[in-house]
Amino acid sequence: MVFFTEKTSLYTINQSKEKVTENILKTGAAKLWCQGFTGKNVVIAVLDTGCETAHPDLRNRIIGGCNFTNEHGGNINIYEDLNGHGTHVAGIIAASNNNGGLIGMAPDAKLLILKVLNKEGIGSLDSFIKAINYAIDWRGPNNERVNIINLSLGTKNSNNEVYESIKRAIAFNISVVVSSGNDGDGDINTDEYSYPAYYEEVIAVGAINNANKIAKFSNSNDNIDLYAPGVDIESTHLEKEFISLSGTSMAAPHVTGALALLINRYELITGTKPTEMELYNFLIKHTEQVKVTDTNTILLLNLANYDDTEINLINKELLIKCFGEVRKTQAFFTQCLNDYCSPEDKEFLISLIQESKSTTNKLKKLCYGIKP
């Protein structure tokens, strides 16, 4: 059994100036960028053909890597891409905002490059399982951990060892995003299967074209969670170039990058890291239903499509909690003033408290409706 990259079509090569491509704009990522969410401190493991580590748009995004193939003499420390597929996927996820080239979905995320496929796009079952476990156990220079795994690859047959490695990753709160496969026939009512995309536990991603229709090549089945752009996707490639490719391999990294942005947003809102299931639910809230036939609809990734009602409620709860802590601290501080301070020090410190009174009153009004 071998894993393989999905068949993709080659369109154009060009030298491009700094820009946000139409496919990235379509996902609504720019709205989250404007709110300050760019994937910072999120680590994404990319299991693919490796990556061109010297590419200007990627060299500052790579936090580490490992080679699980026989290429480069089997040297585990050389994970350069001899195919281009992995470099293209990496760019969709996290190409830097560096005043040149293209911008990826999460331009401040970090990439852990795990080379499991050779220059023909073929890799072994054993290498894949080792790479998944490596991603789970990996720790960065500042004790970072992998948050998301991107798998733009697949095989026809299910395998229990692969399935167990996937489930282990998810048990460690790592989201696993997988391309659905490119064996579609253009009919959403017929099913095509690829693994590990068909495992229920993963986030399976199909491809849409520029008209928001399912791409003719995209697999369709009941376990595909959502769809993302996958036709004529421009991204980074070998020799510091940029190239357009099509495939569900290109759709999956849009969702991977989106998850990185949502991790940032969720952490700010709740104050805690989301579990894998919480992050999945948050992702699904950032989709829209698109009608593709008279009777069929799909979920399309759209980060700009969400209702802030729930978010505002969470924010209010956090402010109430903060206000309670402020009140407790103020009471303790007052006791300390009475017990330990001279009259002069007490007067000075009370003046500092009074300066913050307006802020306290605003919190009261916001949280409880109390007038200042």
Description:
This protein has 372 residues and is of the alpha/beta class. It has two domains: 2-306, Peptidase S8/S53 domain (Rossmann fold, 3-Layer(aba) Sandwich); 310-368, no CATH class. The protein is built from ten helices and 14 strands. It has helices spanning 22-26, 29-34, 85-94, 125-137, 160-171, 248-270, 276-285, 309-340, 343-355, 357-368; strands at 2-4, 9-14, 43-48, 62-67, 110-115, 122-124, 148-151, 175-179, 203-208, 226-229, 233-236, 242-246, 287-291, 297-301. The strands form four sheets. A seven-stranded parallel beta sheet has the order 4-5-3-7-8-9-10, with helices on both faces. Helix 4 runs parallel beside helix 5 (160-171).
The count of DSSP E runs of length 2 or more, i.e. the number of strands, is: 14
Beginning-to-end CA distance, first to last residue? 70 Å
Oligomer: single chain
- Largest sheet, described in full? 7 strands, parallel
Which regions contain 5 or more consecutive residues with pLDDT less than 50? 7-16, 367-372
Features of the shown structure:
372 residues; alpha/beta; Rossmann fold; seven-stranded parallel beta sheet; three-stranded antiparallel beta sheet; 14 strands
In short:
Helices cover 37% and strands 18% of the residues.
Please give the structural blueprint:
Blueprint: E1 2-4, E2 9-14, H1 22-26, H2 29-34, E3 43-48, E4 62-67, H3 85-94, E5 110-115, E6 122-124, H4 125-137, E7 148-151, H5 160-171, E8 175-179, E9 203-208, E10 226-229, E11 233-236, E12 242-246, H6 248-270, H7 276-285, E13 287-291, E14 297-301, H8 309-340, H9 343-355, H10 357-368
Parallel strand pairs: 3-5, 3-7, 4-5, 7-8, 8-9, 9-10
Antiparallel strand pairs: 1-6, 2-12, 11-12, 13-14
Helix pairs in contact: 3-6, 4-5, 6-7, 8-10
